[in-house]
Each structure stands twice: as structure tokens, then as C-alpha cells.
Amino acid sequence: MGSFAGDTLGERIRNHFGHREHLYGVLLDEIGHDWAAGGVCRELLAGWESAPAQQLPQLRLLAGLFRVVLRGEAPALAAFYPCLGGTRAAQEAWPVALPVLKAYAEELRSALTETPQTNEPGRTLALLVALSAAVRRTGLHRVRLLEPGASGGLGLHVDRYRFHGDGWSWGPADSPLVVKDCGAEGFEPTPFEIVDRRGCDVNPVDASTPSGADYLRSFVWPFHVERHTRLAGALEVARRHPVQLDREGASTWVSRMLAAPPEPGVLTVIWHSVTRIYWPPEETRAMEAAVERARSRMPLAHIALEHLWDGSTPDADAGQLPQIELDGIRLGIAGHHGPPVHLDT
Ligand SMILES: C[S@@+](CC[C@H](N)C(=O)[O-])C[C@H]1O[C@@H](n2cnc3c(N)ncnc32)[C@H](O)[C@@H]1O
Q: Which of 22, 117, 159, 331 has a CA positioned 20 to 30 A from the CA of residue 97?
């Protein structure tokens, strides 16, 4: 990864990766040069010259371009996308990408307003680990699963995915998603049944539709083939089992969902992953207060796969691995996209 630094937008784009070793490295190097030379990319990115570097307009542009490819409208360019089976050398991509950038300029300009948004189904590994502990602790096997910051809701299908770890396996053998290399030696999955599931997001994505699925795929780098394979499996599950996602911020939604207890004998689980770093501090405080208030009214477990949060400012250090928490107690750490999990001993 490059430095994102530079005096001009063109330099920042070229420095994003700072190499030409994969498709996006080549494209951003060329886009940066094209911008400096006053080519189509100067027009495409007009108005973004002074945008804060962390808004990453270059990745928004690449995601927009990827969506054109995913729709099947740029087959020559698709030949450079490994996740689509493309095998052409990245070094040769620019002359093929340039006409697509020109032809889709209007669409790509509006793609710049879309904040990159991923949904990593492999993170449900952390939910599986903590949920098993919660079910063992409470003796309640019937679960109401509620996920704030759910994006496309792929984190709500934990019982429909298959997991393989060190010495253990779990989930339907015929699941379209098999999460491999889960680690978590010594983990003992505990049976549970999800009787209700629902999520919210400030920008929910309907992953059961082709355009929603493409939207989520477009933000995963095309040479991260394993992530794309997992995402494709989860999107198939989402297509078969659409879930309800509300457009709402985390804290008001969690308060609303917890206003009424479920039927007796059901464990309510509030679960979230890699979303808290994007919340304003008061969102986190308000959600945690709502969870604590509800504990006297219903059996409840709060499960998180999140980066450490110091209680005041959002933690910007996404480089550190996220940790798995059950009711505020750390159980272990996971990879950025889920596997592998290392349990605390
Ligand atoms: C990196 S994605 C993670 C999505 C999913 N939890 C996962 O792990 O794959 C972060 C998500 O948080 C959502 N988000 C950001 N601020 C939020 C808020 N205040 N309330 C609810 N969702 C929020 C974003 O829209 C985005 O979908």
C-alpha cells in the first residue's frame, strides 16, 4: 500500500498503491498520469481535487468501473479481472480501460458519491464463536439476531454457512458458502436456532437483487479472489433468503428493537462487526446504554467483532486486528475478513 500522499490529486492517486503489480496498481498509476495530462480522468474527477485524502475518490472510481464490468458491458476489460476468471496481464489493461472510462463518464462521476461499502460474510465466524459461548452460558438455544451496521445483511445468515476450523466443522454441508481456514483450535460449536433476524444500516443494500449484489462485489478488489468466492456464496444465500434491513442509525434502531422482549425462552443477540469505527462516539454510547437498559427485561448477549474503541473518539487504526467480544469480554481475535480466529486461552 502506498502513502496516499501528494500535492495534487493526480499524485495522490498514483501514490495510492505506488506500484504496478496488480490491476488496481496499474489503473491508478495510469489514472493519475491521465489526470495530470488533462485527460478524461481530469473531467471525471472535477470537484474532487481538494477532497480529503481519506475519501479515496480513486477507489470510488474503480468501484464504479467494476460495476460496469460486472454488468457484462465491458467484456474486453473483464478479461483483466481475476475474480471473473480473467487472466490477461494487468500491465496491458490501460488501453482497454480508457475507452470504458470515456464511454461511462456520467455514470462514473455519480459513482464518486458512493462511499465504499463492503460486507464480509467470513466475519460471521466471530459470531459463531461468541454465540456458542452465549448459548452455553444462558442455556437458551433459540435466538433473535439483531445486527446494526449490517450493510447487505450477510452477517445475519451465520446458521446457513459452513465453517471449517482446526479440528472442528459446523453448518450445513451443502451451504453455498464454505468458510475455510477458520482456526479457533479447541472451539466447540453449540447448537442454536435463529427464530428471527433483522438488521439496520444507514445505507442498507438489498443483497438479494442483482444490482445490490453487484454493488457489494464492486468494492472488493478484483484480485482478492478468495473474498469474492466467499461473497458469491453468501450472495447466493441472500438471494434464497432475503432479510429485513431498516435504513436507520445503530442506536435508535437497537433501542426500538429492544423495546419489546421476544417470546419467553428466546435469547436476544445484538451483533455487529467492523462498523463501530464509523459511528460517531455518541452513537456507540447510546447503543450500549440501550443494550444495558434492556438486560433487565430480557436475556441478552452483545457480540462484537470490532477494533478497540477508547470510548471517546472513533478509532482510526483499522490496521490492528479486530477482537471478538461477548458482553464486553474479549474472547480472541479474528482476521480483518473473518478467518482465522485465535481464541484467548
Ligand atoms: C465496513 S462496513 C461493515 C459491514 C458489516 N458489518 C461487515 O462486517 O461486513 C460498515 C457499515 O457500517 C455502516 N454504518 C456506518 N455508520 C453507521 C451508523 N451510525 N449506524 C448504522 N450503520 C452504520 C455503513 O453504512 C457500512 O455498511
A: 117
Q: Which atom of ligand 1 lies closest to the CA of 120?
A: 9
**Hey, what CATH class is 121-343 in?**
alpha beta
Residue 213 in contact with ligand 1 by CB distance below 6 A: no
Q: Where in the chain is the domain with CATH 3.40.50?
A: 121-343
User: What is the DSSP pairing of strand 142-148 with strand 266-273?
Assistant: parallel
| pTM for the whole structure | 0.94
**Protein residue whose Cα sits closest to atom 26 of ligand 1:** 151
Q: Cβ of 16: how many Cβ atoms within 10 Å?
A: 25
Per residue in 58-90, pLDDT (tens digit) is 999 999 999 999 999 999 999 999 999 999 999
